[in-house]
Amino acid sequence: MYTWLPVSSGAVVGELEQYISSEYDPVRVAKKLADGISGAVKAVLIERNYNDKDYRSTYYSFYAKKGQRYRSDCVRLHFFDETVLFDDQTLKLSCADNRITDHYFGYMVLRPTGIATIGRTVLSPDVRSGASRYIITAHHKVHLLGYKLTIQGFPSMDQHVDIAVCAHVACWSVLRHYSESYCVYREFLTHDITMMAHEFNPGGLVPSKGLQMSHAERVFQEAGTFPVHIAREHSRAKDPSFYRQLIAYVESGFPLFASMHTRAHAIAVVGYEWRPPVNTAIPGMRYAWDEVQSLAVVDDNHLPYLSIPRTGGSEYSVEDIDAFIVALPEKVFYPADAVDRLAPALFKLGAAVGLPPQDETIIRYFITTGSALRRFVREKESEFDPQLLATIMKLPFSQFIWIVEFATEAQWAVGQVAARAVIDATASLREIMPLWLLHSCKQALVFDRRKVGLDSLRGVGSLNLDDMGHTGFTRMDQNLRPTQTK
Amino acid sequence: MDNEKSDGSMDNQEKDVSDVIKGLTPVDPKVLEAFTREMTDQVIPEILRVVEERRVLAAESRLWQLKC
């Protein structure tokens, strides 16, 4: 039932098919692994007769009804580094430090469907060749041989082709991430996603015809989220704010269901990589999006964390994405489009706060919670004037807030910011001052949300801050996991 | 995204910010006026326009078929 397969460079390609029957298509799987997994994976534990809940959901509703016989069980592959050993007599895993989970790189389920056999997979970005620097991940529990292992990753799988297509898989990936990350969201199996997309049971091969964007939106609504659907203007050159808000949501830790209309393809956007810092001779305000080199996507035709460039690319690029759905929690009313327009206007308050010159600033915005901001400030409390720290602790933030960070080019290069604004994510579109706070190192403007809508003079107060002796605040990077390439 | 609930206490929500945060001083009214004018004349109309435009674009894209 268990086979330990030491992996020397490229050898896994030839060996998997010796141990796994052809209905799991081990040759194609081994080729994909050889092409996409780093040399840090030194052993694969093959677990047979594995009951996979996602495959079973499709087996009960589809494969069991077919004339062709399908197995009901799967094979699961587990990936380890060179320090882990396996005793096939006692079925024990061991390593020198007794922390097997630290040497575990995740798993891949193989379905007995003959084609598109890669099922539920959670792989560490650390061993994915070419993975981007920052990836949205959750902790996934894995029970194996009596050990409880944990892997940080983002779920992925091949599409089934006949009963689920790329759009089903992208929805499933995002929702499985949610159920692993947040206790308010339940788990949905592959077949559940197929059912949620329609008002009725589509049955048979109807799902293989694909999903419309509206169906994907319906899936996220059924799952209890509040999906926001953003489509790009037809001319991408005219719509830079589409990409600015795309990266804002990803930086906020929300994976995106993204469509490429001309390719009739859907993917999940799960991470990004900054370009190397540059010194530009031409002044001009820039946005975080301008500093992005590539996005990380989960595409059902590839292993997870495929890195796609802004333009060009061998298959497709970020420019091909022309709509996305972000599955938000309920209390985010103020849209990214509004933040995108509000952020440059905050320079009108620059004289009262001490913002850097507008045409030398890089603007970054994202959603977080008041609690996360307070936790971040507490961790970096030496950077904050005690009065500013107390202000952040005392302001009655809404649960979700937008943060806008202002950085000079020099600060951006070292992960610092000059100033930060805290915007009420529950604000209305017509609010003139939808802010809680705008601060730099020297000055803070504090907004009383009970008064500011009625009387801006009485609703805003200024706070002089002591110089804490630093060149900038630490940039608030905390939602995505930095990849540690192995 | 963080999953935690806001911990702003009810006491704070009942009081004015100036009662809770000491040392606040008035802001130059000219700065606030300039910001208010910018928001009223430029930013809010632009936000309303772009949000409506996004709604129309989203409506058009809802029928896109995704199957590859």
Task: Summarize the structure in short.
Chain A has helices at residues 12-19, 26-36, 53-61, 166-181, 190-196, 213-222, 240-251, 336-345, 350-353, 370-379, 386-394, 409-413, 456-459, and strands at 2-6, 43-50, 74-80, 85-87, 92-94, 104-110, 118-123, 134-135, 138-144, 147-156, 211-212, 226-231, 256-260, 265-274, 286-287, 292-298, 306-309, 323-328, 361-369, 400-408, 416-417, 419-424, 435-439, 443-447, 460-464, 473-474, 481-482. Chain A has 486 residues and is of the alpha+beta class. Chain A is globular, with a radius of gyration of 24 Å.
**Which outline of chain B best applies?**
elongated
End-to-end gap of chain B: 30 Å
Oligomeric state of this protein: heterodimer
Number of helices of chain B: 3
Number of strands of chain A: 27
What would you say this structure looks like, in words?
The complex is a heterodimer of chains A (486) and B (68). Chain A has 486 residues and is an alpha+beta fold. Helices cover 24% and strands 30% of the residues of chain A. Chain A has helices at 12-19, 26-36, 53-61, 166-181, 190-196, 213-222, 240-251, 336-345, 350-353, 370-379, 386-394, 409-413, 456-459; strands spanning 2-6, 43-50, 74-80, 85-87, 92-94, 104-110, 118-123, 134-135, 138-144, 147-156, 211-212, 226-231, 256-260, 265-274, 286-287, 292-298, 306-309, 323-328, 361-369, 400-408, 416-417, 419-424, 435-439, 443-447, 460-464, 473-474, 481-482. In chain A, the strands form 5 sheets. In chain A, strands 8, 12, 13, 14, 16, 17, 18 and 27 form an 8-stranded antiparallel sheet that branches. In chain A, helix 1 (12-19) packs antiparallel against helix 2. Chain A is globular and about 75 Å long. With 68 residues, chain B is mostly helical. Chain B has helices spanning 10-14, 17-20, 29-61; strands at 25-26, 65-66. Chain B is elongated. Chain B has 3 helices and 2 strands. Helix content of chain B is 62%, strand content 6%. At the A-B interface, helix 4, strand 11, helix 6, strand 12 and helix 8 of A face helix 2, strand 1, helix 3 and strand 2 of B. Strand 25 (460-464) of chain A pairs antiparallel with strand 1 (25-26) of chain B.
